[in-house]
Amino acid sequence: MTDLATRLTAGFTAAFGSTPDLVVRAPGRVNLIGEHTDYNDGFAMPIAIGQETRVAFRPRPDGPLNVAALDFAEGDSFNPANPQPSGGGWRDYVRGVVSQLRLAGVTVPGGDLAIAGSIAKGTGLSSSASLEVAVARVILEALGQSWNPVDLALLAQRAECDFVGVRCGNLDQIASAATTAGHALLIDCRTLDLRQIAMPDDAVVMIVQSGVVRGLVDGEYNRRREECESAARILGVPALRDADEAMLEAAKVRMDESTLRRARHVITENRRTLDAAEALASGNLAAMGALMRESQQSQAQDFGITVPPTDALAALMNHAIGDEGGARQTGGGFGGAVVGIMRKHRAAEVQNAVIEGYRTPTGEAPTICIEAPAAGAGPVI
Ligand code: GLA
């Protein structure tokens, strides 16, 4: 039993005086490339990671849904037939999923539900998406309903957009629900076609937390999305997915500088993500790394979502990794984590370079982890 499993079972028993009927896990994710492309109907390529959220559940035919968030030592209790927003925080992710399940025609039972996770919050590794996916999955498991992972992910996304109020795309939830161990996942965020890409045997993924916890990301996030939508309107296309660099060049006199740069990031990032999928599939870490470096430049200069510490950390990692691999800030932006891909034999050296060369804004050594692509959400007992 892992620490998380023990903590969850013990916490469930302490909170509710019984043992759970079932436990589900849903992983966090790290996006290798394809940033802020999902809500532009584009492409992204995440892997699921070992850090995850687990949810334990014991349903009852009637009564409230009692929830214990073990990591916060907080609780909630609400009528699953009529979930109302609670004013923010983790409760709304749970209530939002229940609300969306009801809208999808699922009769959500009452009962006791406990949550514990190992994903550091605010680090851009999708703790919220994994919570949403785990809650949806455990309720459906309890009802004996087996959903397609993409449908489940889209329901979880709607919970975040419609109930929590962050207009996120579908990357995080699909990554948590539909990944396969040992593989990255190329997502076509419009058609929802998925391509599993085997991670090369001698490649490793390293995640370094910058220590800059995302602050006003949600406001900035929604603002970026509006800028992209405005660029698509000016270009006369349904989404930036449908535009290319020549179209942007032709339309640039009709766009302000900032809108132009936002659009250029998304258009070039879509191309880079498709190229990166080919590079990874053929084990070409030099090409993959070059694309990740370009992505970092693009999100720094054009999309404006990096911060000086993540710029410095990505530069340091890129230098230490050398030609066969690369690094970039990952996730929604404004801090969070930097992801690197490299040959296995380089990992120790890169790790040492980071420990020696980078301090978080509060002066500490950063948290570093090496990840093998994990499996998507599923039951554990
Ligand atoms: C956040 C959102 C995702 C995606 C990324 C940026 O993680 O939840 O939908 O837009 O930012 O790529």
What does this structure look like?
By secondary structure, the chain is of the alpha+beta class. The chain folds into 2 domains: 199 residues, Ribosomal Protein S5, domain 2; 173 residues, Alpha-Beta Plaits (2-Layer Sandwich), CATH 3.30.70. It is 42% helix and 22% strand. Strands 1, 2, 3, 4, 5, 6, 7 and 12 form an 8-stranded mixed beta sheet that branches. A hairpin with a 5-residue loop joins strand 6 and strand 7. The longest helix has 25 residues. The model has no long low-confidence stretch (mean pLDDT 95). The structure holds alpha-D-galactopyranose (GLA). The site of alpha-D-galactopyranose has 11 residues, from helix 5.
Give the bound compounds: alpha-D-galactopyranose
- Mean pLDDT across residues: 95
Q: Give the CA-CA distance, first to last residue.
A: 11 Å
User: What's the order of the H and E elements?
Assistant: HEEEEHEHHHEEEHHHHHEEHEE
Helical residue percent band: 40-55%
- Low-pLDDT sequence parts: none
Oligomer: single chain
